[in-house]
Amino acid sequence: MGKLFNLYEAKTQLSALVDEAAAGSEIIIAKAGKPLTHTERLLDLPPHHADPFDRLLVAQALVEKATLVTHDRAIEPYGAPVIWT
């Protein structure tokens, strides 16, 4: 099993965790003790967007079938549902 981080820890260390995951480490983010799978989806995303937090939001939207609300057109190539502002 990989390294487990609660959601707050992951937010405060996100860039480092994304780098670790990209290097092959298994990073597990948990919310209320329940592991989430967003990081697995994150690794499959191409680097269209330079901001790792925005890529994590895209991964979350794709996993949870949620719609993003943004004006950031760099999100568009990922194909996640978006409401443009």
Could you explain how this protein is built, in words?
It is a single chain. The chain has 85 residues and is of the alpha/beta class. The chain has one domain (3-84). The chain has helices spanning 7-12, 14-22, 38-44, 52-64; strands at 3-6, 27-31, 34-36, 68-70, 82-84. Strands 1-2-3 form a three-stranded mixed sheet. The protein has a two-stranded parallel sheet with strand order 4-5. α3 packs across α4 (52-64). The termini are far apart.
Number of strands: 5
- Largest sheet, strands/sense/barrel: 3 strands, mixed
Uncertain parts? none
C-alpha end-to-end distance: 40 Å
Q: In total, how many domains does the architecture comprise? A: 1
Order of helices and strands: EHHEEHHEE
Quick summary of this structure?
The chain has 85 residues and is an alpha/beta fold. It has helices at 7-12, 14-22, 38-44, 52-64, and strands at 3-6, 27-31, 34-36, 68-70, 82-84. It has one domain.
